[in-house]
Design goal:
about 210 residues; mainly beta; Metal Binding Protein, Guanine Nucleotide Exchange Factor, Chain A; 2 domains; five-stranded antiparallel beta sheet; 15 strands; globular
């Protein structure tokens, strides 16, 4: 959502000192996210009449599913985004499909070796998943290989039972960790995966206790 500086009032923290900044492509804008929880907050254009873009998912009391979506052709802007090099998997056993994944900047890469084609995902409406628009699958940890995990920042809240991991450089949500043995992977980080054909299972995480307080 575009905005002018006079329409934007910071009540807590500071745009420059509090938020992390990530730039890519022609670096015509700065993407700003919270370094603690990874939430994308805003974008700052380096020129133009409306220099600020607000991430509508951080707004309170907004029904995101009811909003009309205006499609952008930004994916075709020059220079075209180059997907980070996939991890080497070696010889992949017959019947196994490798899914190559990464954050935007490529500091974190991972590969899922799956015996089944990905056809469905879980969409949670909890306070953190709705902010990040994450789509989840829950594979066995033994089927996932990570590289650059030192660049992962984890955030937990409420019951502290789930650790939400995001890239500390570009802010992209990578995974959710449940203890040491179970993980969820954000399908939006899977390069080349067509999300439009997935069956979406909805989970009412918003109703789980303790309730999140804005």
């Amino acid at each position: 959502m575009p905005a002018k500086d006079e329409d934007f009032i910071v009540l807590n923290g500071d745009e420059t000192a509090t938020l992390s900044t990530y730039e890519c492509g022609k670096r015509t804008s700065a993407h700003k996210f919270c370094p603690t929880c990874g939430t994308a907050v805003m974008g700052r254009m380096h020129s133009g009449e409306t220099p600020i873009g607000i991430a509508v998912r951080v707004l309170s009391d907004v029904d995101f599913d009811s909003l009309p979506v205006l499609m952008s052709d930004a994916a075709n802007l020059e220079p075209l985004y180059q997907v980070p090099e996939p991890l080497e998997t070696g010889v992949v056993p017959e019947g196994i499909t490798p899914y190559h994944c990464s954050c935007h900047c490529g500091a974190i890469r991972y590969t899922l070796l799956s015996s089944q084609k990905i056809a469905e995902a879980t969409k949670c409406n909890c306070s953190i998943c709705s902010r990040n628009a994450s789509l989840w699958i829950y594979p066995l940890t033994t089927t996932v290989r990570f590289d650059g995990i030192d660049n992962l920042t984890e955030y937990t809240f409420a019951s502290n039972s789930v650790y939400h991991g995001f890239c500390k450089i570009c802010g992209v949500t990578i995974r959710g960790r449940f203890g040491d043995s179970d993980i969820g992977l954000n399908l939006r980080t899977m390069n080349g995966l067509d999300l439009s054909g997935l069956e979406i299972k909805r989970v009412d995480g918003k109703a789980m206790l303790p309730a999140y307080e804005v």
